[in-house]
From TrEMBL:
<feature type="binding site">
    <location>
        <begin position="225"/>
        <end position="226"/>
    </location>
    <ligand>
        <name>substrate</name>
    </ligand>
</feature>
<keyword id="KW-0457">Lysine biosynthesis</keyword>
<keyword id="KW-0028">Amino-acid biosynthesis</keyword>
<protein>
    <recommendedName>
        <fullName>Diaminopimelate epimerase</fullName>
        <ecNumber>5.1.1.7</ecNumber>
    </recommendedName>
</protein>
<feature type="binding site">
    <location>
        <begin position="235"/>
        <end position="236"/>
    </location>
    <ligand>
        <name>substrate</name>
    </ligand>
</feature>
<feature type="site" description="Could be important to modulate the pK values of the two catalytic cysteine residues">
    <location>
        <position position="225"/>
    </location>
</feature>
<feature type="binding site">
    <location>
        <position position="24"/>
    </location>
    <ligand>
        <name>substrate</name>
    </ligand>
</feature>
<feature type="active site" description="Proton donor">
    <location>
        <position position="94"/>
    </location>
</feature>
<feature type="active site" description="Proton acceptor">
    <location>
        <position position="234"/>
    </location>
</feature>
<feature type="binding site">
    <location>
        <position position="204"/>
    </location>
    <ligand>
        <name>substrate</name>
    </ligand>
</feature>
<dbReference type="InterPro" id="IPR001653">
    <property type="entry name" value="DAP_epimerase_DapF"/>
</dbReference>
<dbReference type="GO" id="GO:0008837">
    <property type="term" value="F:diaminopimelate epimerase activity"/>
</dbReference>
<feature type="binding site">
    <location>
        <position position="85"/>
    </location>
    <ligand>
        <name>substrate</name>
    </ligand>
</feature>
<comment type="function">
    <text>Catalyzes the stereoinversion of LL-2,6-diaminopimelate (L,L-DAP) to meso-diaminopimelate (meso-DAP), a precursor of L-lysine and an essential component of the bacterial peptidoglycan.</text>
</comment>
<comment type="subunit">
    <text>Homodimer.</text>
</comment>
<feature type="site" description="Could be important to modulate the pK values of the two catalytic cysteine residues">
    <location>
        <position position="171"/>
    </location>
</feature>
<dbReference type="InterPro" id="IPR018510">
    <property type="entry name" value="DAP_epimerase_AS"/>
</dbReference>
Length: 294
């Protein structure tokens, strides 16, 4: 029996869902009574695209008040988005996941309004369900560009200076000149980002080209995610890209960028209070029950 089969066997009978935000896909695990805290091995098994359900990450739906690491957010948010990368590691925040998580809370009746907050490892985050079905997440204030030292990113023999931005998970943003250069990048292996001391817990790396003139505030990106690999979209990455591009463009404090990702398009807005808002679609595509190996 594979280790994945054993891990899934520990979850036999569990009802889960599958969803995505611009192609960044997740297994959602409703766990209101805290019966399934999920081990890293169980996360890897659920996320495995051959031996499991397949996803970039896992979103466990837990009660904030019963989750010690975020219980201080319980007054603001009833539900905790316990995000895990597909390799079983945790991360501070997941922007696309937050949209899918919010969609599930509303569709399942666990939240009844169109404005509420969710708890995350990065802090409580306000959610707004838009009239057209999009979901907007207040991602808080990004920190960066971090100017203490310009990180360097390498892919094979090529290297570039990058811009470090935390959302609050760590990102390194590389601007490329030509769209063909973006499309030609081999992201089957993790880019190297350094100096290592700058990213002691690893880093998500985004590669960006402008679309049109700078004042069109339109960019296109690819991303290699920490703990996952290349994904079709990254919400926190899109936010990091917006902050880096706005700095590069010397854009006004209040500004919005359209960010094209391989899986679709999101809009990232910086408000006057410096909060970053991520707006985009969120889909629940399936419901499933974990059954043990026959
Ligand atoms: N796809 C996620 C990013 C998860 C970040 C995770 N890969 C990490 O920081 O380790 C998003 O939409 O923000």
């Amino acid at each position: 029996m594979t280790s994945h089969a054993a891990a899934l066997g520990e979850l036999e009978g569990l009802a889960v869902l599958k969803g995505h935000g611009t192609g960044n896909d997740f297994v959602l695990v409703p766990d209101a009574d805290g019966a399934h805290p999920l081990t890293p091995a169980q996360v890897r098994a659920l996320a495995d695209r051959r031996f499991g359900l397949g996803a970039d990450g896992v979103l466990r739906v837990a009660r904030t008040k019963d989750s010690p690491e975020v219980a201080d957010q319980a007054a603001d948010a009833e539900w905790f988005m316990d995000y895990r990368n597909g390799d079983g590691t945790t991360a501070e925040m997941c922007g696309n996941g937050a949209r899918v998580f919010a969609r599930y809370l509303v569709d399942s009746g666990l939240e009844s309004g169109t404005s509420f907050s969710i708890a995350t490892r990065g802090g409580a985050r306000a959610v707004r369900i838009e009239g057209d079905g999009d979901v907007t997440i207040d991602m808080g204030v990004a920190t960066g560009p971090l100017l203490r030292a310009m990180p360097v990113v390498s892919v094979g023999p090529e290297s570039w200076n990058a811009t470090a931005v935390n959302v609050p998970n760590p990102h390194a943003v590389v601007f490329l000149e030509e769209p063909d250069d973006l499309d030609a990048l081999d992201l089957t292996q993790p880019p190297q980002a350094g100096p290592p001391a700058m990213f002691p817990d690893g880093v998500n790396v985004e590669f960006v080209v402008r679309v049109g003139a700078p004042d069109e505030r339109h960019v296109r990106m690819r991303v290699h995610e920490r703990g996952v690999g290349e994904t079709l979209s990254c919400g926190t990455g899109a936010c990091a890209v917006m902050v880096a591009a706005a700095g590069r463009d010397q854009a006004p404090a209040e500004v919005a960028y359209t960010v094209d990702v391989p899986g679709g398009t999101v809009v990232v807005t910086r408000r006057a209070d410096e909060h970053i808002e991520l707006r985009g679609p969120a889909e629940i595509v399936a419901i499933a029950t974990i059954t043990s190996a026959p």
